[in-house]
Structure formats: structure tokens, C-alpha cells
Specification:
With 191 residues, this protein is α+β, with helices and mostly antiparallel strands. It has helices at residues 20-29, 66-70, 75-87; strands spanning 12-14, 36-41, 44-53, 94-103, 121-127, 139-142, 148-152, 159-163, 168-170, 181-189. A 7-stranded antiparallel sheet has the order 1-8-5-10-4-3-2, with helices on one face. A 3-stranded antiparallel sheet has the order 7-6-9, with no helix packed on it. It starts with 11 loop residues before the first strand and ends with a strand.
């Protein structure tokens, strides 16, 4: 695969992002990890969803959490960081947040930013074996006026990157969706 050309200030989508073996290894970790329910977005503390912490970096963190990531028992999470540093950013980039979020029908997302700082990038990898458009659950990124700038369907092995200070949200899932919409989220300082 050719190195992804991360463009400052843009929303970008990369399909079939990861090597198949790494993507499958990440999928296989999902039933084994300890999910906790009750995570929320500070802009709406009443809305709850599923979460699994990997790097233990808060929204305002600016320190590299790579050492904490290496303590996580599942090696595919370490391998994903290596892949990101080789194909998306560079080895000097800092990983400042790293976690899994998951939604079921009824656990709606909420518009939020991952950072208030310029120069940080959020990378969202969808971890699913399939997706149907009638399940909804898109990630939307809003423009300065509050209109939807980009809407991204959570397809298998799809990666979306955008500036962390862009307002965005996972959209509600359809009632016909009976699974778990899982995203692996990184916040990076590549610039």
C-alpha cells in the first residue's frame, strides 16, 4: 500500500485501509476486551455509550501515550500504532488519545470536538464485518455554520481522518440494527 497523504485541515476517507491480517486481528480482539458502559461526551453528559480505554489520554492531553499503549494486553492495538506511524503520519508524531467507542440502537452520539487545539488529527477506524446503509450510524463532520460537511458510512476497514477541532458526531443507529457499531479512535499530533 502507498503511504496515505494526510492533508492538513481536510476530512479524508481511506477504504480497505489496513492489511487484511491486521484488520482481522483487531476484529478478533472485540469479544475479548472489557467493555464498560456509561461513557459520555462532556457536551451531553446524559447520553451514554460503550467504551474501552487503550491509551488513557484525556481530551486536553498533549503527552504521548505510546508507553501506556504498549502495556495493553492485546498486541493488535500495538501493531495498529506501528501501521499508523508508517502509513499515515510519521514516527515523530505523538499518539495523545487511543480508545474504542461502541454504540447500539438507542445510544445516540452527540456533536463534539476531540480537541480545541489546531494541528491535531482524529483517525476513526470502523471495526465491522459488514455494514448496510439502512443501519445508518454515519460519522458526520459539520462545517462552521453547523451544516453537514461530510457524512461517512461505517464500512468495514474504512478509515476517516479529520482535524480534531472539527465538530463531528456519530449519527443514531436504525432500530433494525441489532449489533454494536465499533470505532477505534486515535488522536494524533502529526504537524
Amino acid at each position: 500500500m502507498e503511504k496515505f497523504n494526510l492533508k492538513k485541515g481536510e476530512v479524508q476517507v481511506l477504504d480497505q485501509a489496513l492489511p487484511k491480517e491486521l484488520y482481522i486481528a483487531l476484529l478478533k480482539t472485540l469479544p475479548k476486551i472489557g467493555w464498560s458502559f456509561g461513557w459520555n461526551t462532556p457536551s451531553n453528559p446524559n447520553q451514554r455509550y460503550w467504551h474501552h480505554e487503550i491509551g488513557y489520554g484525556a481530551k486536553d492531553n498533549v503527552e504521548d501515550v505510546s508507553e501506556k499503549i504498549l502495556k495493553h494486553p492485546f498486541k493488535p492495538f500495538h501493531q495498529y500504532i506501528d501501521w499508523v506511524k508508517k502509513n499515515i503520519v510519521n514516527n515523530e508524531s505523538k499518539i495523545i488519545r487511543y480508545y474504542l467507542n461502541a454504540h447500539t440502537y438507542g445510544t445516540d452520539g452527540w456533536p463534539h470536538t476531540d480537541s480545541d487545539e489546531e494541528g491535531q488529527v482524529t483517525a476513526v477506524l470502523y471495526l465491522t464485518t459488514q455494514w448496510k446503509k439502512e443501519w445508518c450510524g454515519e460519522t458526520v463532520v459539520f462545517d462552521e455554520k453547523g451544516d453537514i460537511k461530510v457524512s461517512v458510512i461505517p464500512r468495514p476497514n474504512r478509515l476517516v481522518t479529520f482535524p480534531s477541532n472539527f465538530l463531528h458526531s456519530p449519527r443514531p443507529l436504525s432500530k433494525v440494527f441489532e449489533g454494536l457499531r465499533v470505532v477505534l479512535v486515535l488522536k494524533l499530533t502529526p504537524y
